[in-house]
Amino acid sequence: MLSIHRGSVLAALIVIAGATQVQAQTQVAGLPVASAPIMASGDARAPYAWTDFCKRKPSECLVNAAEPEQVEMTAKLWKTMVALNGRANREIEAVTDQDHWGVVDRWDIPEDGKGDCEDYVLLKRKRLAEAGVPRRAMRVTVVIDEENAGHAVLMVRTDRGDYILDNKRNAILPWNQTGYVYVKRESQMQTGWTSLGGLATATVASVR
User: Fold this and answer.
1) CATH code of the domain containing 19
2) 207 occurs within a structural domain
3) What is the rounded CA–CA span in Å between residue 127 and residue 147?
4) Is residue 174 within 8 Å of residue 24, measured between CB atoms?
5) pTM of structure
6) Do residues 117 and 152 touch, judged by C-beta distance below 8 A?
7) What is the number of domains present in the chain?
């Protein structure tokens, strides 16, 4: 279970107006429709369980500033993202950290085939990195979901905008079509986290 303080975030909401009817998977020349990137707004405290994960697996948390901040969205990359996202969602059995590890919050790569939202994220990031996607262009991101609960997703930053890989759906959506409130993500400049200011998005796509 991802634990975050929601009150201060909700007080800082900035509602972003979006199109009322957008098909998230509509493609132009085989690519997803472009969207505006999300902008960071300052430093943020890393989740405790992330810090613990980085102590155990430091190579998973390093930022290589020589890598690009975003990746070119090609038909090949899009196909790889869709395939890896769907496969991880099918492979991993969703269980709470309490049931899995006997603790409230623990982040790990789900090598035993079980995990919760942040474990899905870490697995997807690992597999995409193995497929050649720069780690610096993939950011673990904390949001508030439709149930007003903390949730983790993987943001892939591309030249066509920022796209969200999520264990709640197989469809990969532009960040501003998820209906989530964006709290913070890994920093691209250093080993740390950056605030996303509590940006809220309207749900304009309901696809799985």
Assistant:
1) 3.10.620
2) no
3) 29
4) yes
5) 0.84
6) yes
7) 1
